[in-house]
Amino acid sequence: MSLWYRIGAAGRITLTLHIQPGAKKTEFAGLHGDALKIRLAAPPVDGKANAALIAFVADRLALAKSAVTLKSGQTSRRKVLEVTGVAEACIAALAN
Questions:
Q1: Hey, what domains does the chain have and what are their CATH numbers?
Q2: Residue 91, helix vs strand vs coil
Q3: pLDDT exceeds 80 at position 13
């Protein structure tokens, strides 16, 4: 099991992410220490980057946005998301 995600109770998976807002395009950028790095095209203003992050992760995992919750890091580059209703194999594939 990787360090950047953890399997919790009731099918919940927490993701530790390092976010780079204001990038040219939104994409996964590999591992950054114990976090998965994501470049976001959205600017870090008025919650736009957080909304874009949730939409991007939900889209890549084929989930509704309501299945992805920002648990911590609202104003930080380091964020923790909680995801429900997805298999661990799908999460692990994000880093590849």
A1: 5-93 (3.30.1200.10)
A2: helix
A3: yes
Q: How many CB atoms lie within 10 A of CB 10?
A: 5
Helix (H, G, I), strand (E, B) or coil at 60: helix
Q: What pLDDT, on the 0 to 100 scale, is given for residue 1?
A: 47
* CA dist list (Å): 54 to 1, 38, 66, 84: 23, 11, 9, 13
Ramachandran angles phi, psi of 49, nearest 5°: -65, -40
The answer to whether the beta carbons of residues 68 and 91 sit under 8 Å apart is no
For residues 6 and 13, what is the distance between their CA atoms, to the nearest angstrom?
6
DSSP 73: -
pLDDT for the residue 69: 97
At which residue do the structure tokens 């990038």 appear? 23
Number of neighbours of residue 50 by Cβ within 10 angstroms: 20
